[in-house]
């Protein structure tokens, strides 16, 4: 069993939640309770990542990957299976590619029921939680842009964030 995200995905997010601490880099946005790292190098050299890759090589599901396991056990596609389809396309161009999702910031104009105060400035205001001023774009330079084949923006609502607009302008 394999998951291309173990080698090719970089999830960069910033949260004000004490649950996650200050580390910002993770391997997959679908993982449950995965550790975060201060740098991409720390993540890639971590024993944690080596252990997860070994579990996949032994056809074992890492506990962090339970969302994909549940989907696949029900016979439905998962983020892992979608990533395998993308991997075929991207690896034909570059074997050491990266796909990244970056949480730009928490600027948002809604308080959706499925969200939480650490992800929405509007929701945090309603909940009385101080806004998080950090941006995942502050960490994007850790990724070699020559290797980056796809960059997804998350938020808040990235389409209304001035940081997204400034990043795209540059």
Topology:
Layout: H1 5-8, E1 9-12, E2 25-26, H2 40-44, H3 47-57, H4 66-73, H5 79-93, E3 98-103, H6 121-127, E4 148-154, H7 162-169
Parallel strand pairs: 1-3, 3-4
Antiparallel strand pairs: 1-2
Walk me through the structure.
This protein is an alpha/beta fold and 170 residues long. It contains seven helices and four strands. The protein has helices at 5-8, 40-44, 47-57, 66-73, 79-93, 121-127, 162-169, and strands spanning 9-12, 25-26, 98-103, 148-154. It has a four-stranded mixed sheet. Strand 3, helix 6 (121-127) and strand 4 (148-154) form a beta-alpha-beta unit. The radius of gyration is 17 Å and the shape is globular. 32% of the residues are buried.
**Which secondary-structure class do the elements indicate?**
alpha/beta
- DSSP helix fraction: 25-40%
The coarse silhouette is globular
| Main beta sheet | 4 strands, mixed
Count of runs of 4 or more consecutive helical residues: 7
- Strand arrangement, largest sheet? 2-1-3-4
Query: What is the average of the pLDDT values?
Result: 88
Number of strands: 4
Distance between the termini: 40 Å
Which stretches of 5+ consecutive residues score pLDDT under 50? none
Q: What string, H for helix and E for strand, traces the elements in order?
A: HEEHHHHEHEH
Provide the gyration radius in Å.
17 Å
Beta percentage is 5-15%
């Amino acid at each position: 069993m394999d998951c291309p995200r173990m080698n090719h995905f970089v999830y960069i997010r910033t949260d004000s939640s004490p649950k996650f601490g200050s580390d910002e880099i993770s391997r997959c946005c679908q993982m449950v309770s995965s550790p975060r790292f201060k740098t991409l190098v720390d993540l890639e050299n971590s024993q944690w990542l080596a252990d997860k890759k070994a579990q996949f090589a032994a056809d074992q599901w890492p506990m962090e990957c339970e969302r994909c396991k549940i989907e696949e056990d029900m016979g439905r596609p998962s983020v892992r299976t979608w990533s395998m389809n993308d991997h075929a396309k991207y690896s034909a161009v570059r074997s050491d590619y990266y796909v990244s999702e970056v949480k730009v910031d928490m600027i948002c104009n809604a308080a959706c029921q499925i969200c939480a105060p650490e992800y929405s400035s509007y929701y945090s205001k309603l909940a009385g939680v101080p806004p998080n001023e950090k941006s995942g774009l502050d960490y994007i330079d850790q990724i070699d842009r020559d290797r980056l084949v796809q960059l997804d923006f998350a938020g808040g609502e990235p389409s209304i964030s001035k940081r997204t607009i400034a990043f795209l302008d540059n």
